[in-house]
Amino acid sequence: MSEVGEGMTAPDFDLPRDGGGNVSLAGLAGKIVVLYFYPKDDTSGCTVEAVDFTALSDEFAKAGAVVVGMSPDPVKAHDKFIAKHNLGVILASDEDKSALEAYGVWKEKSMYGRTYMGVERSTFLIGTDGKIARVWRKVKVPGHAKDVLDAVKAL
Fold it and tell me: How many domains, in total, are found in the chain?
């Protein structure tokens, strides 16, 4: 499958979310959506990223954007992650990896000479028209949430 990129229609998803219920791209139609993919709840980089997005959540809301984090972790793990770090973002659970694959972020990775499948930390900025306005791949966490906020404000 070709990689999803800027100018393309964002693939829809309808997944269970923290706190119960579901979150879908169709349900957020007409809003700016910051969709960030991360490997695992409550790991160091993922925690910093979620805390950074939470710290800027009021500014994202003022700019008309909704922030959704997505990982293959189950909803129960998301709920614990949110409670432990007082997070203020939506966390979607993609246990079957359908959205991760649709966005091209479920990739072969390697660490210490071992290869495995995992989430490539990536963020997609989706405009009110449902098209991808900006893509960040292989994200480095420090300063990332602020960069995304700046891009949202520039839309």
Answer: 1
